[in-house]
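Narrative of activities, Objective 1.

The group set out to show that a structural description can be obtained from nothing but a protein's sequence at a throughput compatible with the screening campaign. Below is one input-output pair from the validation batch, recorded exactly as produced.
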Amino acid sequence: MTTNTAALDIDREKGNFKYDVEYEFDAGVGLNEGVIDYICDVKGEDEWIRAFRKKALKTFQEKPLPTHWATKDLEVIDFDKIRYYLAQGSKPKRSWDDVPDDIKETFERLGIPEQERKFLAGVEAQFDSEAAYSNIKEAVGKQGVIFVGSTEGLMEHPEIFRKWFGKVIPTGDNKFSALNSAVFSGGSFIYVPPGVKVSHPLQAYFRINAESFGQFERTLIIADEGSEVTYMEGCTAPKFNTATLHSAVVELVALKGAKIEYITVQNWSSNVFNLVTKRAIAEEGATVKWIDCNIGSRLTMKYPGVILRGRKARGEVLSIALANDGQHQDTGAKMIHLADETTSNIISKSISVGEGRATYRGMVSIPKHLKGCKNNTECDALLINEHSRTDTYPAITVRGNHNSVQHEASVSKVSAEQIFYLMSRGLTEAEAMSLSVNGFVNELTRQFPMEYSVELKRLIDLEMEGSVG
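Output recorded for this entry:
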């Protein structure tokens, strides 16, 4: 028996590199109103944005850290030692040739230009606080599709942007949404006009290069009536000895009959605290699908949600989380049913390796007055050895007699007999383990675009290779 694992040209340190960059704009260390003013001045923002940011800063300072879970992990973060804004320039380049050489080399090592040429309708590449490159294919632009950074969205399309900005996720939703609202920079703004179906994915790539840095991108995607769009994001950072903070806010709006698919494959280094708030609104007959893959980071707290606001709206969260030594993947989903005949589906797969910990934390709410609502929740966990840990905290609230809900959870260990059999057929222990884990998540990876499913398999191969012996 043979596998193609060995044939894969895997760069195990693909994201673990950095360049010494001369930043044109640097807000310094720590967070206060002076930092807010600096960011606003560099970006040339309107006064209402400055007021919005300062109000959010006050909310962040007043809110305590979450006390009900992951408290000890979060207490390690020293917000006074984080750098909140670093950029070589405040405006993205439209031509790849115009991107500064050190930044260009970073993204070329990560394969971004190649992916753009092969299968993307548009791409945005963010380096620390700002997008270094942003481009959309001419044919897609002619359809009226807008794909720019959040700064450009605010300034060039305020009539669309302001209507939904901060409406799906209010500033005071949690401490980290407030922090993002105070210092947000970068991220994507996408608007798809009525009836337009974007045939190829739009992609953003978020790269942290600087040490003791916080990246706070803000993404807003609006799919107008009957439109369809797929958005993909990738994330990497080099390994540092100090804490790095990533705290994004993502708001999705799917209007009547629209479809949004949002795909994330993150491969953060083990010093990154990944504290992200993601939520969508789905109007009548709309569909929102989150596909979320979490590998790396010291701590991830991320629970994509859908507010099913219109009749026959559908929400789906498909997630994979892999926690290795010293890592805690605290992930899950939220489904809020607010209209009749709405449907939600949550499928979560987690793998705990070494002394890694994976936690599923979900919430499903169906009020008493609704009829014909359906929810399916499946939480499957795989433990690689006796020291790994998994926890499941599903909170499902269903009232009334006219709705249906089903919940299924399983915990299993990699079978020693299975590994022995595979090794007897010529595989190494790492290859056998990788094959077992890939089989465990195969149902979900088939729903990833091919380029991302191949990358995910490579990442799993590397995690398993380092987990045995």
